[in-house]
Design goal:
This protein is α/β, with parallel strands linked by helices and 1194 residues long. The termini are far apart.
């Protein structure tokens, strides 16, 4: 066995290498940190001669910490590494370009353009043209014919532009995402002792040898060894997967690991490993996060190493990816991802299918018309030398078909969402919202309920003691020290100074005449302020009893709701000081100090009297009441672990009333929420009277309201059955009226949030936002649709579980988030309204034009230009509209609201009618109106005509003015309102207009344009401006009178979600939509076989049920949900609750039953229960239902 002194020798005999400066190497410390509990203790004691010796080897002082000398810190970083895990390399711009090129429509276009290019260089001799039955070019057309390659080249050029724009958008999105990550990382600070002072240091600055202060709620930023700890319990599940909290102490297990959470207690540790040498860092290195290994290897590592997936990084780009995985790893209730993304993907898939069909029909008609006209009607032979010319025609038709598809597919949708969300996230930072998950932003716009904490969110979290009850006297102001007996004064000062975290302290104000600064726990700061107001000095007491002398500490947690500290008395024996919620501590008191400081008995009736005369009056004024007590142990040492026996027979010293004033801006913010249709509920651990008083001050409750104020116990009694299980039905009776939940535990908070989200009462499902700051709020924050963590008072654990961090802990910032969320939703709808109008018009024009004139009035390159302004620039212009207060004057949309309302549908169809009328008039009568040559039926490679240039120009100008119309989606008249607040919009409209002038005047052959006269330009402009006037006419037509209008872009219904989400832990609507598209093909094959079987089964079951009317459940072996209707629009409602299903006896459990639309029943392998006969018939009687005829035949 080696002697520790031998080990220390190299440190003294300065060896050349860096490691020689310290008594241990990086590898020594890495190996040490891989050991657990007793193995670790043995290694520390045997190899390093104890923790204190290890500190001296690392040249650090366990009490004072490092000196903070920059040269020393730099040296430590060189020897032991930095506390930073290098992020994964971002994708380069070229990689993003390559990804953008993978788009199928673009690939098809590229191929068609290349074929067109190649064929354009083939020139058959002139006389053969006659044989091929094509018009002979006149000499002046020769030059034009030479330029036949231009169209192909122009298409390729347009594709390149589209690809570059897409890649640039992806690149800037990635950049913003990284910026956001860095911002979150910078926010994370940790308490470190340097030079005897506790300072908040960014996590990346921590070095080996630092002495870190750890407390309840921290996420440990590095590996370390405990030097001193009080009642420390750590959640190591992120590393080990074990959910039990691990007790840490010097004797049993002093090893602390990065990425683990402090669930209870406090202490100090010496940092022994940072960054890639810490346990988390090692696993990240294995995962290949730091080395840019091949994707394949990395994927394998991720799937094999299940434990590693759950690690939370300290400073790593993979943070958010990992979080998603962690959600999946922990068996949490399903949390739906972006609802908006789901609705959009669904809509895009539907539009894409329609576009595909239209483009296929267009190509087919063009080819058939050409073939029939040439070879059947004119009876020309197919000459082999003419084949290239015919192919050129076919390629031209094909290109027209593809451009129809390109215009029909709304690839701008995802772009609009990204731009809108990224823009909002950037702006929300200024409003003190740090968004961690992009989709939280739009979900917030749909929020219908907010469950908020009281302290710090609704109140200022600046606590002060304003009343006190000491020695039978209720002081309504702070008493003067002379009014109290020295003995009592002394015990109050000791009870507060010793029994509070030594990290809580009061510092002098930053500015002259300002308020003293409160550092640490705000409630403890209020008590320390009380000591200062009594003209006493708590520092003197703390220097007399330093933290090392504390014998045992029971730290505050949500179960105890109290804190106690035990010290040894100089005369022998022990004294324990306790403080906590007044009703909890008073229940444990059996004695009380009177005026003279003598101990008096304290009976139950005395307690009731005190609650009535002291505590309730304080609480009704909105004060938090805390009780301070003590207990002496004179007969030997008790068993400290037996908490129940220790925390009894206390002697009450005093009860204080602490004021935490309501933030002045909160009542207004809550009034805004009410107007916006959002219910605010207060969930607090405080006394019910205090909670009610604060709720009234905030405006959550007004006198005379018929709302509920419940305590946690009462709430649980009302919602649980005899077995203690939560029943949704019982909860549904409570939550709609509940406004205040007091004395609640974190479990109550989670139960309430889950209950509201799962509830189906009311006309729409609830979307719930929750605020939280404590470690135990984690589950509720994760369960909520949007979790807000407090940036100042919040623990790392809460921040980790949240979606948005409030950097100023202020409720008004939540209201701002609602406004931004609604704005995102509206921006997308504006863009959709614009995009779909263009889609409808462009597709119909290309299709009918092709069918009637054998050529699309809008050429491929023109279509691509329209697609570019319509998709990219319009999404930029409409998605960056700043929010207005008017957004808070309507009710939330909710989960199931369609994206395209009937008003929007009216606008889309109305403007499409105007545009189509104008374009068709120009196509078929334009040449007469303008007195120019007709551009219809032009031969191949003919020069661009003025006729078709006017059509193109008019079309683009109509879109431009319609873009201004699209700024309003709720039927408002003034479409120019606030237009100059959005400079991007003005720039895009102006830029597009200038580009259009350049294209028409100088675009020439590539854009199939020719110069226009001034009068023709004025006509085009006049028709364009007509869009604005037409918009006014449309908005005068009441939407209600147009009964035929349908909504579109519905969300996925709840039943479809449960059906598709079997086995998923997180529901991603967008992915599910795409998956469903793939499933459709397989369904088609199954459907025919299935229908015959099902109809037979159904037939016989129906007969049975008619013959035996008593047996109402006779079809119970048929299916779970009555989803017979194939039509998407028929609302599907589950007629059985999941719990009921499981209780029903299943006659044929385990058989797989296929439904009419070829889908396997979701619960097929549990019970194949159907619905009551009567209910089936109701569903079946929808006229769209395929069962309609069947039902009547029975």
């Amino acid at each position: 066995m080696t002697n520790p002194t031998e080990h220390a020798l190299p440190a003294n005999s300065m060896v050349e290498s860096h490691e020689g400066d310290f008594g241990c190497t990086v590898m020594d410390l890495r190996k040490l940190m891989e050991l657990r509990s007793s193995d670790g203790i043995d290694q520390i004691n045997v190899h390093y001669g104890g923790v204190m010796n290890l500190c001296s080897r690392l040249k650090t002082d366990p009490v004072e910490g490092l000196s903070g000398n920059p040269a020393d810190l730099e040296k430590r970083k060189q020897v032991f590494g930095q506390n930073f895990i290098p992020p994964k390399k971002p994708k380069t711009f070229l990689e993003l370009v390559w990804e953008a090129l993978q788009d199928v429509t673009l690939i098809i276009l590229e191929i068609a353009a290349i074929i067109s290019l190649v064929l354009s260089f083939y020139r058959p001799p002139g006389e053969e043209n006659k044989q091929c039955g094509l018009p002979v070019s006149s000499p002046e057309d020769e030059g034009e014919a030479e330029a036949g390659w231009i169209e192909g080249a122009a298409i390729l050029f347009s594709v390149i532009i589209v690809v570059l724009v897409t890649a640039f958008n992806d690149w800037s999105k990635e950049k913003q995402f990284r910026g956001l990550q860095n911002r979150i990382e910078k926010e994370q600070k940790f308490s470190v002792i340097r030079n005897g002072h506790i300072i908040q240091l960014p996590v990346a600055e921590i070095v080996v040898g630092d002495i870190a202060q750890i407390k309840y709620g921290d996420l440990l930023p590095a590996d370390g060894i405990l030097i001193q700890g009080n009642d420390l319990k750590i959640d190591e599940s992120s590393l080990t997967g074990e959910s039990d909290h691990v007790k840490k102490s010097l004797e049993r297990d002093p090893m602390l690991l990065s990425g683990t959470h402090v669930m209870e207690g406090s202490g100090r540790m010496v940092v022994t490993a940072v960054g890639i040498n810490s346990q988390t860092g090692i696993i990240f290195t294995l995962l290949g996060a730091s080395e840019g290994e091949e994707e394949e290897k990395k994927k394998k590592a991720k799937t094999q190493d299940g434990v590693a997936l759950e690690i939370q990084p300290l400073n790593s780009q993979e943070g958010i990816d990992n979080e998603e995985k962690e959600k999946k790893a922990a068996k949490l209730p399903k949390k739906e991802k972006s609802v908006l993304q789901g609705k959009l993907t669904r809509l895009a898939v539907q539009i894409g299918k329609a576009g595909l069909i239209m483009s296929a029909i267009t190509v087919l008609i063009l080819i058939l018309y050409f073939v029939i006209d040439n070879f059947v009607i004119q009876r020309k032979p197919w000459l082999s030398e003419c084949t290239p010319i015919y192919i050129q025609y076919f390629v031209k038709f094909f290109i027209i078909g593809i451009t129809v598809l390109v215009v029909a597919v709304p690839e701008g949708l995802p772009l609009a969402v990204t731009i809108s969300l990224a823009y909002s996230v950037k702006k929300m930072m200024k409003d003190n919202n740090l968004v961690r998950h992009l989709d939280a932003c739009e979900t917030m716009g749909n929020a219908t309920a907010i469950c908020s904490d009281k302290t710090g969110t609704l109140t200022m979290n600046r606590m002060t003691v304003v009343q006190a009850y000491i020695g039978d006297t209720h002081y309504h102001q702070i008493p003067s020290p002379d009014a109290l007996v020295p003995k009592v004064l002394d015990i109050i000062v000791n009870g507060i100074s010793i029994n509070s975290a030594y990290t809580s302290k009061i510092l002098p104000p930053e500015k002259e005449g300002g308020l003293p600064r409160q550092v640490g726990n705000k409630t403890e700061c209020a008590l320390l302020g009380f000591v200062t107001d009594l003209k006493q000095d708590y520092h003197a007491v703390r220097s007399e009893v330093p933290e090392e002398k504390l014998y045992k500490v029971y730290t505050f947690n949500s179960v105890r709701k109290s804190m106690s500290t035990v010290i040894e008395k100089p005369s022998g024996g022990f004294r324990m000081y306790s403080k906590g919620a007044s009703e909890i501590i008073l229940r444990k008191c059996n004695r009380i100090l009177d005026k003279k400081g003598e101990v008096m008995p304290f009976k139950n009736k005395d307690r009731d009297e005190m609650v009535r005369t002291v505590i309730e009056p304080m609480a009704s004024e909105g004060l938090r009441t805390l009780c301070i007590a003590y207990r002496d142990f004179n007969d030997g040492e008790p068993t400290w672990d037996n908490e129940g026996e220790i925390l009894t027979e206390l002697t009450c010293i005093a009860v204080v009333g602490i004021e935490d004033p309501v933030r002045p801006e909160v009542p207004e913010a809550i009034a805004k929420c009410k107007r916006a249709g959002i219910t605010v509920r207060m969930v607090t651990g405080d006394n019910i009277n205090t909670a009610r008083a604060i709720a009234t001050k905030c405006g959550i409750m007004t006198p005379g309201d018929d709302f509920l104020c419940l305590e946690g116990k009462e709430f649980n009694r009302l919602i649980r059955n005899e077995k203690g299980e939560v029943e949704q039905e019982k909860l549904d009776k409570i939550w709609p009226k509940l406004r205040v939940l007091a004395r609640s535990s974190p479990t109550d908070k989670h139960t309430l949030v889950k209950g509201i989200i799962d509830s189906t009462v009311g006309e729409q499902r609830q979307v719930v936002a929750v605020t939280g700051d404590g470690t135990n709020d984690g589950p509720a924050l994760k369960k909520a649709d949007v979790g807000f963590a407090m940036g100042i008072a919040g623990t790392d654990v809460a921040k980790e579980a949240s979606d948005i961090i409030l950097t100023d802990d202020n409720f008004t910032s939540i209201v701002k988030a609602v406004m931004w969320g609604r704005n995102v939703y509206d921006s997308i709808s504006k863009f959709l309204q614009f995009q779909l109008t263009v889609n409808v018009v462009a597709v119909i024009v290309a299709f009918t034009g092709a069918c009637i004139t054998q050529d699309s009035p809008l050429k491929a390159v023109q279509m691509l230009w329209v697609n570019l302004i319509m998709d990219t620039f319009a999404s930029l212009a409409l998605a960056t509209e700043p929010p207005t207060e008017s957004l808070l004057k309507r009710r939330p949309y909710g989960r199931n609201k369609p994206l395209i309302s009937r008003t929007m549908m009216k606008n889309i169809l109305g403007h499409a009618v105007y545009q189509l009328t104008v374009i068709f008039f120009l196509v078929f009568a334009g040449e007469k109106f303008f007195d120019i040559d007709s551009g219809r039926k032009a031969p191949l490679h003919s020069p661009p005509s003025q006729h078709y240039t006017i059509i193109f120009n008019t079309f683009v100008l109509m879109q431009l003015f319609n873009e201004i119309n699209s700024r309003k989606i709720h039927g408002e008249r003034n479409v120019f309102a606030g237009i100059f607040r959005n400079l991007i919009f003005c720039a895009v409209v102006l830029g597009t207009f200038i580009s259009q002038i350049l294209i028409v005047e100088f675009g020439g052959k590539p854009f199939s344009c020719t110069k226009l006269t001034l009068s023709q330009w004025f006509w085009c402009l006049f028709i364009g401006i007509g869009e604005l006037l037409w918009g006014q006419i449309i908005s005068t037509i009441p939407t209600q009178s147009l009964k035929f209008l349908k909504e579109a872009g519905h969300g996925t219904t709840k039943e479809e979600i449960t059906k598709d989400a079997e086995g998923l832990d997180e529901i991603d609507h967008a992915e599910m939509e795409l998956r469903r598209g793939q499933i459709l093909w397989f369904r088609g094959l199954n459907r025919i076989q299935t229908q015959i079987k099902v109809v037979k089964a159904f037939h016989s079951s129906l007969h049975e049920s008619i013959q035996k009317p008593k047996n109402q459940n006779s079809i119970h072996n048929f299916m779970t949900h009555p989803e017979f209707a194939i039509d998407e629009e028929v609302p599907r409602t589950p007629l059985l609750d999941e719990h009921e299903e499981e209780n029903l006896d299943s006659p044929k459990a385990g058989t797989r039953v296929l439904l009419l639309d070829g889908e396997v029943t979701p619960y097929a392998n549990k019970n194949n229960n159907a619905v009551d006969c009567s209910q089936v018939q109701i569903v079946a009687s929808h006229s769209e239902s395929p069962l309609h005829s069947l039902e009547t035949s029975v």
